[in-house]
Write a structure and sequence with these properties.
This protein is of the alpha/beta class. This is Arylsulfatase A family protein.
């Protein structure tokens, strides 16, 4: 079922209707609510996995200067909801500590039967108050790495996903979603891509700082990519953002950058110490970032 606000949004912006048709067509074809061709991140070999939200493989390859070996992987999601569903469903990940600026795990973990040793939501301290600055995520991740030296550390930054922050993007007026930001600033596709790249450079600076504090094998990857004016499929409509159920390369081909950092961790799986408690309104936080919940 669709809410009245969703119906009204589709009537005002017909591209949302076409995007929903693409999602439904892909679900019917794949028979899953996530990309069945994507990897299970927890079956991969890593001690620390750093997730950049909405980071495209091609733009990461263009901008990244962090030492290591760059490979590509296919994600199980074209957005965060699918990424969480595809990787965490029916799982007992008791050797994983998850530090995250993205609230979809908090929103979904009960209904999909997911459990980690500890989930640590980062403070929402960005200027729009709906997201976390990358330096805040780095600080929380450093604390978690020190507290849990024998756990796999999963760290989820919100950038380069919009809002577009950092000193190079100070002139931009951010809105709830990418379409609103484009309209508010009258951005061309070229200007949008440059704002995205500046946001990626901004977060990578703080990722590099985190790497100085991590032991073992660290991988830098993404939950999904981003459309910056390319076309969806199967209905070839020009689009922006990361609509669900659309499995084009720009959305599901993600970086897998391997950085070696000394001795591997000796992992120990332990029952979660306490029930996860989330104080803020998770659903509203996701809506403030332009997600449908």
């Amino acid at each position: 079922m669709y809410s009245l606000s969703q119906i009204w949004k589709g009537l005002r912006n017909p591209h949302y209707i076409v995007s929903e048709w693409n999602r439904l067509l892909n679900i019917a074809r794949n028979r899953k609510r996530y990309n069945p061709d994507g990897i299970d991140i927890f079956s991969e070999d890593w001690d620390n996995l750093l997730i950049l939200d909405a980071c495209r493989y091609d733009e990461f390859a263009r901008i990244n200067t962090i030492p290591g070996e760059l490979e590509a992987r296919i994600s199980r999601g074209s957005n965060s909801r699918e990424f969480v569903r595809g990787n965490f469903s029916d799982s007992r990940l008791h050797d994983v500590v998850y530090v995250s600026a993205n609230r979809y795990y908090a929103h979904m973990h009960d209904r999909i039967g997911a459990e980690v040793h500890e989930y640590i939501p980062t403070e929402l301290d960005a200027p729009d108050v709906s997201s976390s600055l990358p330096e805040t995520v780095t600080e929380a991740a450093i604390e978690a790495a020190e507290r849990y030296p024998n756990k796999r550390l999963l760290v989820h930054y919100l950038q380069p996903h919009q809002p577009y922050f950092g000193p190079e993007n100070d002139h931009l007026e951010n809105r709830k979603d990418i379409h609103g930001t484009i309209e508010a600033n009258d951005l061309s596709d070229t200007e949008l891509r440059e704002a995205y790249r500046k946001n990626l450079r901004y977060v990578l600076t703080h990722v590099e700082q985190l790497l100085e504090h991590l032991e073992g094998k660290t991988v830098i990857s993404a939950d999904h990519g981003e459309l910056l004016g390319e076309r969806e499929r199967p209905i070839p409509m020009k689009s922006y953002g990361h609509p669900s159920g659309v499995y084009v390369d720009e959305l599901v081909k993600v970086p897998w950058h391997v950085h070696e950092g000394g001795s591997r961790k000796r992992l120990v799986a332990e029952e979660p110490s306490e029930t996860m408690a989330i104080s803020e309104n998770v659903d509203q936080t996701l809506r403030d970032l332009g997600y449908r919940v």
